[in-house]
Every structure is written in C-alpha cells, then in structure tokens.
Amino acid sequence: MNRAADGPRPHPLTPADLPAGDEWWNDCNQCNTTVQGGAAGLAAHRRTVHNLRRDYGDRRTPTTIRLDF
Questions:
Q1: What is d(CA 30, CA 46) in angstroms, rounded to the nearest whole number?
Q2: Strands (E), the chain
Q3: What are phi and psi of 30, to 5 degrees?
Q4: Three-class SS state of 30
C-alpha cells in the first residue's frame, strides 16, 4: 500500500510558499529539464536525479538499427 510520508514536505508546493525573489520554474542545466518548486525543488531534483551514488540516470542503451534501402 502506498502512503505519503508524515511530516512537512521538503520543498514548497505552491508559488505562494516560495521566498521572495525565488522563481517557481527552474531549468536544470545538466539535463535541460524544467523543474517546479523553486530553488528547493531544483535542489531536490539534483539530489535525486544527478546523485552519482544513487545512479538514477538514464540506463537505456542506445540502439543503432541499420536499414538497407
């Protein structure tokens, strides 16, 4: 059974929860993905997606298909 964790969320859920001057949308410069949640959301994205210890990166193997016409 899935259940949300107890306690406060680690990053803001709405633009109104952000500190003054923080942007709701940020672009990750490593993977060119738009991340919402301000600086805290971007930090959470980098901590999970780009963490070398966790290695959650793209594990797909590129496939080359040769077509003879």
A1: 9
A2: 25-27, 34-36
A3: -90, -35
A4: coil
What is the pTM for the complete model shown?
0.58
Classify 36 as helix, strand or coil: strand
**Cβ atoms of 46 and 28 closer than 8 Å:** yes
**How many other C-beta atoms can be found within 10 angstroms of the C-beta atom of residue 4?**
6
- Residue 52 near residue 24, CB atoms below 8 Å: no
Which among 7, 18, 16 is positioned nearest to 43, based on CA atoms? 18
Q: Please write the tens of the pLDDT for every residue from 27-53.
A: 888 888 888 888 888 888 888 887 766
Largest CA distance in the chain: 60
